[in-house]
Amino acid sequence: MENRVRRWLHGRDLAVWYAPEYRWPMSALESRTGFEPRRADFVFWYLLDERVLRRRNLRTPRRAEYHEMARVHTPDLLESLGTSRTLARVFSLDPGDVPVDETMRTVRLACGASIDAAREMLSESNPQKLGRRAMNLLGGFHHARPDVAGGFCPVNDVAIAVAAVRAEGFRGRVLVLDLDAHPPDGIAACLAQDPSYWIGSISGSRWVSLQNVDEIVLQERARDEVYLGALDELLGRMPEGELAFVIAGGDVLATDPIGCLGLTLEGCRERDLRVADALFRVPSVWLPAGGYTPDAWKVLAGTGLVLGVHSRAPVPEGYDPLVAKFSAIARSLLPENLGDPGDEMDGIAEQLGIRTARSSLLLGFYSAEGLEHAVERYGVLAHLRRMSYGPFRCEIRDEGVGQSAKLIDIPSGEALIETVLERRDVAGAHMLYVHWLALRNPHARFSPERPQLPGQEVPGLGLAREISELLVRMAARLGLEGLAFRPAAYHLAFRGRGTMRFVDPGRQGRFEALMDLLKGLPLVEATRAVAEGRVLLDGAPYQWEADEMVKWIEPRADDRAAIDQARSAARFSLATA
Ligand SMILES: [Zn+2]
Fold first, then answer.
1. Ligand 1 mean position, distance from CA 53 (Å)
2. Assign residue 149 a region: left if phi > 0, alpha if psi is -120 to 50, beta otherwise?
């Protein structure tokens, strides 16, 4: 078929299911598993920005009903999902970190969307069904069996969607093309009794052999060419079908710590293009499944670009969806709503003999009301409400050095977010200096799944990216050149490594050498090794250097030569126990 016609048909009928509640509400999910809980948000924002999605493409998920899930799952399994213990096991988290109702809300919305997507693909309004595609930005929970949940899959949305359309009389063959890095054990178990199905899978892990799956298991870290060759083989064997589910897993990337394949982002895009072409005459529901690296969202965004506009264009290097979204929100926030009362207010206050309004403003600009308005608009409060906090108030106080701002959970009186800020010159530039920043989740507790990091008094909120971006927006609004802080421990510098640099290139080089040494260790272990003096520099215990790190709003080039020189000169080693 003419490529132009194909492209037009691809985009025309794409239906996309997304809800802000697709963000998982567990605060340790990201730090513990590498899974980006904001993946659906990132992809949705990006596809909107790129104009791949328009209003007519959007669908609103609804919660799956219990009777719909009960077509596939046992009553015991469904009952157990009402406890934090079961959900914590499914997601490898501590039970204290799993708000049951909100977690199940996310699960049931994704599941209801997979059902509705399958229904819409089969509806009679387009009898030819050419080019008909659905994409659910959460789902593909392929490991859940009828009676066992596990591996990030509380229920099996694919099997539940199949059961729903079967119950409505659909008799055609269902195709499941599982391209996650892990085998579809749950789907195979759930569909075992289905009258007409085919499951094909390419993975990088051999678990048990699945009798009812056309399964290809590739060698570890198999690259694009090998993978795409196997895909062509599998697609060649795929029978005719009337409804397809594509599990377009994001954990096939070479960098993935849980998946064992070796694909690039281009390889993933080519995968999706070939599958979309092979399924051109079959209505299909596309689901994201796994993905445990910061780049996993780009795999799913790529799937959207394929289904929407048949595009090979990469997501631009350095594009950060959170930064893009927050800058857009910042542009929509008016200064008068953030607290700047203007000069005439100062004058009035002085005439009335009361202290000037300006002295109670954070950095001479933000009022407590204005801060609360801002954190609401940036989505921070909505997320905290899902973690059972709120209502909230903000508090601003002058401290000995700088000013503190707190976001307080009114019922418990606990400060959830606390920072001490000041304008200060660093590296010859006017900066927003962060003396202190604590994100506190007093509902959670430390455990083997959630180990305590130096300086942590209670576990964190999982909102570090939002809050740092918010501070960057503040600095930009105040006309400052960036953020600066002194990381008191290794993990704080490590978390900032993507966008922050030590001011001194020599220090940055030593830090990079230290990261090289500690690369294989979990962050908590690495941080402890440094804090406990088990890291040696030139044979002597290394004392962490809490020097200034900066993040420039307008990115500046690194002094790479000086950094690399210090990096290769630093002789770090680990003391043997
Ligand atoms: Zn997987």
1. 27
2. beta
Low-confidence ranges of the chain (pLDDT < 70): 1-12, 125-131, 340-359, 577
Which pair of tokens denotes residue 568? 């290769």
The whole-number pLDDT of residue 352 equals 60
Q: How far is the CA of 221 from the centre of ligand 1 (A)?
A: 14
CA–CA gap between residue 360 and residue 383 (Å, rounded) = 28
pTM: 0.91
How many residues in total does the chain contain?
A: 577
Query: What pLDDT score does 323 carry?
Result: 93
Give the Å distance between the CA of 154 and the centre of ligand 1.
14
Q: Long-range contacts made by residues 367-371, C-beta under 8 angstroms, separation at least 24?
A: 367/338, 367/339, 367/341, 367/396, 368/339, 368/393, 368/394, 368/395, 368/396, 369/339, 369/394, 370/337, 370/338, 370/339, 370/340, 371/338, 371/339, 371/396, 371/405, 371/407
What pLDDT sits at residue 356?
A: 45
pLDDT confidence of residue 357: 45
In this prediction, residue 350 carries a pLDDT of 55
End-to-end CA distance of the chain: give it in Å, rounded.
66
Backbone CA torsion sign across 525, 531, 532, 536: positive
Q: Ligand 1 centre and the CA of 183: distance in Å?
A: 8
